[in-house]
Fold:
Amino acid sequence: MEESKKLGLALLRKEFDPNQISKLPKPSKSQTDEVKSDYRKGIRCQICGGWHHKDVVHLDYVGHAALTNRLLDCDESWFWEPVAFDQQTGLPKLDSNGGLWIRLTVCGVTRLGYGHPDGKSGGDAIKESIGDALRNAAMRFGAALDLWHKGDLHLPQPETKTTQDKKIVFLTVDQQTELSDLMTQANADKAGLMKYLSDSFSVEITSLAETPITAYKQIKSLLLQKIEKAKS
Structure:
């Protein structure tokens, strides 16, 4: 039994296949406001299928169905339960933010998780909270931990790749979002900025995701100057 538990928990930490990973758009506040004020500013995204600003950054994540399938592979008897129940209705108790605390039990091991509705309402809010709580609790077991690390931890490690034995460190997702927001505010020419960066680093750069982190302060300074100049 103990050996079976170890094997099940180890399987939970196995990396997810590419076809099990979905794309989650992460718009900045200004991008969201821009599309709300004029829907024509949005596009039908070919990456995630949603309608949002054309410059939105996407994060990798594992959806409810893929996670449930992995949990069943690990332990057919897995289950979750709310930490607290509402004494009047008998339903799972939500906190003041509409969030839900749960206990997830896999292979006899129980860990806590928390989910929130992410702005949704009604029945969709409950389903969103449950799915989010399951992903959060499963992460405590190591499920999709590499995806959480790239996108949601407080101190994400920037992506690196090796070119001719030299490591190039790229902008983090948060830095990409910040600069994209500033580009919108400055009404910056994205194609022109990419050409400037390509010329500066002697390599083709077509997006912020391909931009070396060493250019972050310089780009931010240029955009802020452009924004201030427009105000004067």
About this structure: The mean pLDDT is 82. The helical segments are 2-12, 29-37, 64-74, 122-140, 145-151, 173-186, 190-201, 216-231. Residues 36 and 42 are 9 Å apart (CA to CA). The first strand starts at residue 21 and ends at 26.
